[in-house]
Every structure is written in C-alpha cells, then in structure tokens.
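Worked example 3 (structure in, sequence out).
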C-alpha cells in the first residue's frame, strides 16, 4: 500500500508490542517511520523489521517521560525528515498494581502520568508548528478500557488514560482549524507483557479472549496497526476528537475483572 507515501510518522514506544506493530503497519502503508524507545537494542530490532519493508526509517532513543527528551525526539525527527505528518503517542509505563489505600501512590501516579499524559502533550506541542507548516497532520493518543470502567488496583493507569480523553478532545477542538485531527484509540491487543501473562495462565488468557465478541485477542500489526493506518489516512480527514475502541467489541461487555490482587475481605 502507498496511502501514506510521503508522510513522516513518529511512533513513541515502538520497540515492542502494539507500538512496534503500528510502526510496521505505517511503514507498509508507505510512511517514513521514526521509531522510538529507551532501549537501543530493541530499537535495532524494530529497525531490522522496518528495513525489510524499505523506505527512509530511523530510530531515536528517548525517554518521553522526561520533557526535554520528549521534545528532543520530535525536533530530531523533524530535522532528519524535514516534516512531521503523523504523531502516534503510544508510549506508556505501567506501575505495579496496588490498592488505593496503600502507600506509595504519589510516585506511581507521577511516573504513569509523565510517561503517558504529559509525554503526549509535550510531543504534540513540538509537532504542532511542523504540522501547521504543511497544512495539517494526524495525532493519535491512547486510552484504555481499564480507565473507562475503572479497573481495580490500577488507579494511576486509569486516571492517566481518562485524562487523555480530555486532552485529546481539547487538542482536536483547538487545532482543527489547522487541518490537524486528534483522536484517541483504546486498543486491546497482544503485547509482550500480556503474552507473558497468558503463558503463565493459559486458561485465564483463553477466558479473556472469550470476553471479545470476536473470540480472540487483537494482533498488534494486522488489527491495531491497520486500524491506526486508516485513522491517519486522508480517508479519515473529517474524524477528530473521537475515542475509538479497537478491541474486537470487548467494551460492549464491560471490563473482565481479572485482578492481580485479591479483594479485601
């Protein structure tokens, strides 16, 4: 496919899992991809995959939970490619699960907010003038079904993802005049962490798959990545400010309560 030919896309947190699948899908659609992550070794792996597709791709190591690093990522990408058309804010660290009443929540909230909500704001702020120069762009932020339904023991993650909804709507409202669309996706797909979880408890993994009307888990490239390609293409140029579930319909049934911690007695 060449529907994204000539476009430059940044994908944060794209050295594994959903981010990697999205990066590969964008490259297959003709985009020049700027992959990102904290690990140079993992960066080499995703660059190997992108190299097989062909095109002008690059890996930039940066920890987007640090404001200066997030901004440097976008600036280096623009300096290399000369433009920024697509920004995929996929990166998100996840602190250990804990009850709300337990100690240490401030640190977990700070870490999770910085890597998700603030990182998405910082990268978008720097990308904005480049997108305005070329007459428009596409920004995709990431939410979660966990935030929508308030999954237990993940208050830091849930709050971050729901705050992303408000940030996305405001970006869309303020920046639509520049031809920039801003949407949020709420994906459910296989990631290294989720795959490791399934390996430890296959029966629970199968039960979770049955929670999807499609009766399977999403695939990072073919399901999540392909949907993102459509959302950032010209075919979706009039879609903005939306929160789109990419979860095989799992949201229709609510949230399966497979908790890491036992309920208090």
């Amino acid at each position: 496919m060449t529907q994204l030919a000539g476009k430059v896309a940044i994908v944060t947190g794209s050295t594994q899992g959903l981010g990697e699948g999205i990066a590969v899908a964008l490259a297959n659609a003709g985009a020049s991809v700027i992959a990102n992550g904290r690990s140079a070794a993992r960066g080499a792996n995703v660059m190997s995959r992108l190299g097989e597709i062909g095109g002008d791709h690059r890996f930039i190591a940066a920890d987007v939970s640090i404001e200066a690093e997030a901004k440097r990522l976008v600036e280096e990408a623009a300096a290399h490619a000369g433009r920024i058309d697509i920004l995929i804010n996929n990166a998100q660290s996840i602190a250990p699960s804990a009850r709300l009443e337990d100690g240490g929540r401030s640190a977990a909230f700070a870490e999770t907010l910085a890597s998700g909500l603030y990182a998405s704001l910082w990268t978008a702020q720097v990308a904005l003038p480049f997108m305005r120069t070329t007459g428009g762009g596409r920004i995709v932020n990431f939410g979660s079904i966990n935030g929508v339904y308030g999954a237990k023991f993940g208050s830091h993650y849930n709050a971050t993802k729901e705050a992303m909804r408000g940030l996305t709507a405001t970006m869309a409202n303020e920046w639509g005049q520049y031809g920039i669309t801003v949407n949020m996706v709420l994906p459910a797909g296989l990631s290294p962490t989720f795959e490791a979880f399934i390996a430890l408890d296959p029966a629970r993994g199968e039960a979770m798959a049955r929670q999807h009307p499609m009766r399977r888990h999403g695939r990072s490239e073919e399901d999540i990545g392909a949907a993102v390609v459509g959302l950032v293409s010209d075919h979706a140029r009039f879609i903005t400010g939306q929160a789109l579930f990419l979860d095989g319909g799992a949201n229709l049934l609510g949230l399966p309560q497979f908790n890491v911690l036992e309920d208090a007695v």
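Notes: Residues 188 and 247 are 5 Å apart (CA to CA). The first helix runs from residue 17 to 28.
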